[in-house]
Amino acid sequence: MPWSPRAALFWDLVLGVLGTLAFLIDVGADLWAASQYVLSGRYLWAALVLALLGLSSVALQLFSWVWLRADLSSPHAPKPPSHCLALLHVLQLGYLYRCVQGLRQGLLVWRQEVPTQFDLAYADFLSLDISMLRLFETFLEMTPQLTLVLAIMLQSGSAEYYQWVSTCTSFVGISWALLDYHRALRTCLPSKPLLGPGASVIYFLWNLLLLWPRVLVVALFSALFPRYVALHFLGLWLVLLFWVWLQGTDFMPDPCSEWLYRATVATILYFSWFNVAEGRTRGRATIHLAFLLNDSLLLVVTWVTQSTWLPSGCLLQRLLPAAGACFLLGLALRLVYYRWLHPSCRWEPDQVDGTWGLHSLEGRQLPQNRRMAHLAKNFFPKGRDEAALPWKGEVNGVL
After folding, report:
1. pTM value?
2. Which of 58, 95, 239, 249 has its CA 20 to 30 A from that of 132?
3. What is the C-alpha separation between 237 and 270, in angstroms, rounded?
4. Is 376 part of a structural domain of the chain?
């Protein structure tokens, strides 16, 4: 193989290793923080950290198990017996099993001088599910954990060193998960255009800059009214769940698991934008942005009227203007990305139907991740012709 494709395969393998290590480090850091809270007598904080960690882990295992059961009829590669897979997921090891499986396939592809189309397609198939699960874990566990840590820091007026480290790594990890998800979806495109370094930096930055103000205002509300933040989340979450249901999602293999997906998407929409339906999404994205912006402004007004409750008011007087500047800069970078860097493409009917798609040169059907290909069809706009420019499409994607 030429050096550039082989180098790209090696880079993907390195990113897979780093992503797996980051997941393990994040779990270890959460357990360490919970133990520190217990030792300092803050049992409620420790219980909240463990509850978020446990709920997100259970949801992640459910997604992984449902997808594996749906894929068992497709003989992509040898799998452990069904009871072994079930035991792995009961032990909360299903996601790690997928990561190891993806790394093994990536190493197999990289070691081949000329990888077969089937091996390359199967590596993409595995990485797509891993990226989606990582995105779910990010918004079900990492983002709420970050909000909790910021609320604790604001309420106490001080911060331990591990809290600052956790805050910085969480922001970077969340933005990285969104970038990784975007890169993964590009493998579903018929032309598979690579995400260049410049586009990657812009996509990473605008996600970071738009997410930071939302997390900050939610943390402010949590610090001021810790008893009412659950009610605020539940109220908005129900509205967002209803909105997702109205869009008629069809991502999971059965109706029951589809509600798990809709509930997860509603949680993502509480913090960020996530496109789940085909068609004109510019209006939906604008409505969601206006909805979150108005909610955030109401939370800021609440802080202004009740700021004496917090011991760290002086710091907040500097943080809130900085958060507003970050929001405007992130919005500008988002418009730049979708104006010049977001690809359009011509979708073929067989590119999104079925788990198995095109045939390889070896005469074998290539595995295709139907669920992720369907999301990619929603994510990337249809070009008016084969040479459609990015600015001729819709504003789709993940914020």
Report:
1. 0.86
2. 239
3. 7
4. no
User: For residue 239, how far is the Cα from the chain centroid?
Assistant: 21
Counted domains in the chain: 1
Within a domain: residue 325?
A: yes
Q: What does each C-alpha distance from 12 to 133, 201, 268, 383 come to in angstroms?
A: 17, 17, 26, 28
Q: Whole-angstrom Cα distance, residue 344 to residue 387?
A: 8
**What pLDDT is stored for residue 243 in this prediction?**
94
Angle between helices 197-224 and 282-305 (to 10 degrees): 40
Cα 69 from Cα 94, distance rounded (Å): 12
What are the residues whose beta carbons fall under 8 Å from the beta carbon of 290, sequence distance 6 or more? none
351 has pLDDT over 60: no
pLDDT tens readout for residues 36-73: 889 988 899 899 999 999 999 999 999 999 998 887 65
Cα-to-chain-centroid distance, residue 348: 26
DSSP state string for 73-97: TS-SS----HHHHHHHHHTT-HHHH
395 within domain boundaries: no
Q: Tell me what pLDDT residue 316 has.
A: 65
Structural domain of 180 = 5-305+314-341
Structure-token match 């990619």, residue found: 376
